[in-house]
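Subgroup meeting minutes
Present: P.N., E.W., G.H.
Scribe: E.W.

1. P.N. recapped why we're keeping a running log of single-chain structure predictions: easier to compare across weeks, and new members can see raw inputs and outputs side by side.
2. G.H. added today's entry (660 aa).
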Amino acid sequence: MIAEIGHFALVLALCVALVQAVVPLIGAKRGWSNWMAVAGPASTLQFLFIAVAFGALTNAYVTSDFSLVNVASNSHTEKPMLYKVAGVWGNHEGSLLLWITILALFGFAVTLFGRNLPPGLKSRALAVQAMIAVGFLAFILLTSNPFARLEPPPMDGNGLNPMLQDPGLAFHPPFLYLGYVGFSMAFSFAIAALLEGRVDAAWARWVRPWTLAAWIFLTCGIMLGSWWAYYTLGWGGWWYWDPVENASFMPWLAGTALLHSAVVVEKRDSLKSWTILLAIVAFGFSLLGTFLVRSGVLTSVHAFATDPARGIFILLLLVLAVGGSLTLYAIRAPAMKMGGLFSPISREGSLLLNNVLMSTGAATVLLGTLYPLIADALNLGKVSVGPPFFNAVFLPLMAPMVAVMAVGPMMAWKRGDLAGILGRLKLAAALALGTGALVWFLQGGSAGPWWTGAGFALAVWLGLGTLADLADRIRLFEAPAEALGRALRLPRSAWGMALAHLGVAVFIIGLTASAAWTTEHIQSQKIDQTVDVAGYGVTLKSVHDVPGPNYTASQATFEISRNGTLLAVMQPEKRIYRMPPRPTTTAAIRSGITGDLYVVIGDADPKGGYVTRLYFNPCIAWLWAGGGLLVLGGLVSLLDRRHRVGAPARPRVQPVSAKA
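Output recorded in log:
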């Protein structure tokens, strides 16, 4: 009965979404306030109906209701409770319901927190959000019903994919979807602005917090996914330019560019047309990712569905949403006023340059992701585009962007003094060059990759440039006694920007070191045999079977020593799940600030040994620390009063006129 209530709630949500998509839009066009007022209650009612449906499906998983096809296919009575709940979104139908729930949640949040929005803009934005909901509610009801019954129900289910039975994968999809779907709100505001014919500083300030919230969630989701891949898949890496990894990275790049572009709209009333386009592109990339994982065009651990009919439905939604919005953009964008002019050497110029580089990077990733699919569809043969292509094309685009990030915040609006800024950064430049030379020397000169020195130099340049900008803002060296007070009064958005930029610098150190100096040993190792890895002695002491809640595991015990001193005991596992019967690998990792010792146990060999994979990954912790600083910087910026209020505050005292 609960499942039928959930299904009926989705039908009611579709009816409400249809009303929300039409009535407020007509009201905004005609200036009818009572019709525009329908948007708020409709978005609330739509969210409540969808929440009921999501709760009904969650209840089915928690109670192991195998009379539902979805639960029987993706759950099992022996699964731990965490993975029963995670099973709700560990499949196509359930993850699509999560997608729709988050979509409705963002619309509901605008209703709650957007009380100071102009009625016309708010009603149009919520109507556009409802149009997206109509498409996806129709999709789930017509092709992907999560409440379909199974007769007769089995005693036990098939179980969740063992690769997904992990805490990292339990939390990674919700965060990722909060980012993906969160960009729908920026998209809705952009379309509402095009319909209204008004893009100004107030619009930019209203759209920024929603974009920033989506960006924070997407950053967190990407980092959680990378962390899961690192410790679960057993190959010692955290990013492989997998097509579905790229599908999350492209909206992140477009969203980052959108955040910076919106600042220019707010401060200088410029780049309005460009900002609208970025909002459309960011959500378009999110829809593209949804298509890739549900169309069957990709075979990946991330992919959910292989039904071509579903893929065609999603492709139709993608074409309608992106094609329709770009058509509207082509009609309305030329009428937008250019706004304030600025010199190329200015803060606006630096933000525009970084926007162009990030957008070019996103286009590069898009080309590398889709080209093999296009070549296969046109019978041009199987083409593989992997890490060598992306590393050779994407990373060089990011180097000048990072260099500009250090000086851009120090530039004045409209016209900047580049020579003066570089003069203030002479010490930072000297230390960056010195660091690069030292790293190159310590790795043995040309014996190591040439770009390691460049990577470390860029990280130091960005980090010191960011700190120098903070010091200038609080006048640390001019009036040190008053610096603390100025620091406390500094806008939180400034602190958030500094934390995020420092996060990029820290991330670059981890990226450069792990890419250049990873040590890998793969061998057949016998009991009590020791293998030297980056100065550590790794001794295999035993391998024995251990039971798990729904699996059995071969657990190895390794002793880690250095110079004869025992440092740690590590116990990786190779697991065999009962339902579905499938092997997985669980690595043992000893983390430190200088690097991770990473140990994986494989199958036994005929000679009495075991295949072992041993890695030393330098500075991996710096990657996670950099990602954490990015998220923290976004959260601090989101707490800025201007983002909470959403509109420029009126001055308390009216300025005195010149005549007075």
